[in-house]
Structure formats: C-alpha cells, structure tokens
Amino acid sequence: MRAIYIQSHGQPDSVVVGVQDAPEPGPGQVRVRVVAAAFNHVDLYMRESGKGITHELPLILGVDGAGHVETAGAGVERWQAGDRVVLYPSKVCGHCEFCRKGEQMLCLKCKVLGEHVDGAFAEYVVVDEDMLFTLPESIGFEAAAVLPTAYLTAWRMVMTQARVKPTETVLLHGIGGGVALASLQMVELAGGRAIVTSGQDDKLEKARIYGAAATVNYRDDEVVDAVMQFTGGRGVDVVIDNVGEATWGASLRSVRRGGRIVTCGATTGGFPAADLQRVFIRQIKIFGSTLGTHDEFRALIAAVAEGQLEPVIDRVYEFDAAPEALQNLDQAGQFGKLVLSVGSATH
Ligand SMILES: [Zn+2]
Predict the structure, then answer these.
(1) CA of residue 79 to ligand 1 center, whole Å
(2) Is 203 left (phi over 0), alpha (psi -120 to 50) or beta?
C-alpha cells in the first residue's frame, strides 16, 4: 500500500512517500481504508527527532484520519465493511485507573497513531475497534480528519478545562494555527469574547470573520498592553496557550486575578520563567491539556454534525505532496488545518 513514513530523523529526505506492507487486523481490530488525514506539529517533531516517544523506524506518520471500515478482525461485531468512521488517535488499555474513569488520554499504556505506532498517512490503517467513531453523513471526510487532534484538543481546553462562560474574555496566541483557530471557534460556541494575536495582519482580519472581538499584531503592539486596554485594566478570564516559552510571560501577565490558563503545546520551548509569586498571589489556575476523552470526542462530532461549528481547512494536499505540506506547516503560513487526501470516498 502507499504510505508516508519516516525512515530516519532530522534529514531532508527523512519523510518518504513510498510503499509499505498493508497491516492485517488482529482480534478486536479493524482495518480502515483512509480517505483523508490531517497534518499536525507532532509530524514535524517525529520527522526531526521523535525524542521521548518510543517508536521504531520506519514509522508511518499521521495522527488524524477518517475513512471506511474495510475488514473487521475476529470478534468484532460493532463494525461492518463500508461504515464511515473517524479515528480516535490513541490506542488505550481500557482497564487502567484512568481508562476506568473515562479519561482515555491519560491511559498508562496509551499509544498514539503516527507517534508510537503506524498512523493514518497510508491507504490502510489498523486500529482497535474502540478507536473508531461513527462519522455522520453530514460531515465530510476532510472535515472529519481534522477533528481528532486540533478540534478535540480545543474542545477539552475550552469546554472542559477552562469552562469558558458567556461574556468571559479569552486570549488566544498565534491564531493561524489549527488548535488556536479551533479554540477561537469553541470560545464563540461557548459565548465568550476572544482576543487573538498573530504576527500577520491578514490572519487577524480572517480571525475577525470567525468572531474574534479584538486582534493584536504582536509585531506592532505589546500583547499585555492591548489586553489591558480591551479589558479595562482587569485582564482576561482565560488564556489558551499552545505556544510555550515565547508567550508564557504574556499569558501570566494578561490573565485576571483568579483567572485560568490552559497550556497544550510548547512549540517555542517548554521551560519559561515560572513567575511563581504571580501565580500564587494572584491565584492563577493552570491546566495542562492534551487531546480529549471518548465522551468529549463524541460530543465534538455531534456538534459538528449539527452544524454548530465547521472546521477550518486551509488546504488539501495530494498524497505525493506530503513533504511539501510539512514544509508549509513548519513555516506557519496556514490559516486553519492542512489536510492530506489519501483515497476516494465510496459514498
Ligand atoms: Zn488505560
């Protein structure tokens, strides 16, 4: 089968568009014919080093995918050939302390597609049957492919961790990226008011179309000053920070007393100054967040199916163009998600 995989780390030709053996489903597993997949920053991380993530080379990339059930392994009764499905990106054990509480992304044995095990950038991917979620007819495969990482992560941060309430103000850094833009849409859904930042004016203009109440070009304006001006000197109720070292100081200084900061990424580095006095004196609540639970994924799919929010796709790449897509992701020129077209939908 055709597949996009890494055969080494840190080289220009580390990512290969080539051929790998199609995987066979074992008991309790399902083979999915992938129609669309989506790119994420972790693909770049795996290409560069994959440090700290146990994996073997070659590794097929791709955390996110959607398609049709093709073959069900022994003992699988819930799924039949042709079913439209979207993949929950993590293989979980189902019986550890966290799985029993329904907090699947904290599973002690979790293995993420395209990180620990072969992912969705291939004609076929084999997953455990409980990683499949029914894809309603009203959601296209390309839209579905962006839900498992960016939109699920945003959903958990805004709806479950920060619990943004109507009229609350939320600061979002770097609005062109998939998670930040998904978070903006979630804030809108929750009735909050978003202040967004970017270094590019065209992205800020587009963010206004998606409901941003205020925009800051961080190359022109000091983000904290702009936040204080917008909020009458009070600060925002919530900050969603998926940037890390470059923005963490501004996040701490932008949030109101007793406010919440949610962190889900550290693309600019993971060790900013902690400023603990500010954290405890002002009683700032800090939440770590990544992906979401099965229940949250179900709620997200339902919200999209009902038309409450529509995923933003910047561009769909043909299969052979995957290395180019990764370069574009690295250069952060996108507004919304980058999608990989893998196969054609049969219905
Ligand atoms: Zn578990």
Answers:
(1) 22
(2) alpha
What's the CA-to-centroid distance between 51 and ligand 1, angstroms?
Answer: 23
At residue 333, the pLDDT reads: 86
Pairing verdict, β 15-19 and 111-112: unpaired
Q: How far is the CA of 106 from the centre of ligand 1 (A)?
A: 7
277, burial (CB in 10 Å: exposed 0-12, middle 13-18, buried 19+): exposed
Report how far ligand 1's centroid is from the alpha carbon of 20 (Å). 29
Q: Could you give phi then psi for residue 240, rounded to 5 degrees?
A: -105, 115
Distance between CA atoms of residues 77 and 43, nearest Å: 33
State in Å: Cα 133 to ligand 1 middle: 18
- Tens of pLDDT, residue by residue over 247-299, are 999 999 999 999 999 999 998 999 999 999 999 999 999 999 999 999 999 99
Cα 130 to middle of ligand 1, angstroms:
12
Q: In this predicted structure, what is the pLDDT of residue 12?
A: 76
| Separation of CA 198 and ligand 1 centre (Å) | 38
β-strand partners of 122: 3
CA of 88 to the centre of ligand 1 (A): 14
User: Residue 321: is its pLDDT beyond 60?
Assistant: yes
Q: Above 60 in pLDDT, residue 147?
A: yes
Task: State whether the Cα torsion 266-269-271-277 is positive or negative.
Answer: negative
Cα 292 to middle of ligand 1, angstroms:
14
Structural domains in the chain, sorted by start? 2-146+311-341 (3.90.180.10), 151-288 (3.40.50.720)
Ligand 1 geometric centre to CA of 78 (Å): 21
In this prediction, residue 346 carries a pLDDT of 59
Average pLDDT score, the chain: 96
Q: How far is the CA of 118 from the centre of ligand 1 (A)?
A: 19
pLDDT in tens, 154-201: 999 999 999 999 999 999 999 988 999 999 999 999 999 999 999 999
Average pLDDT over residues 75-93: 97
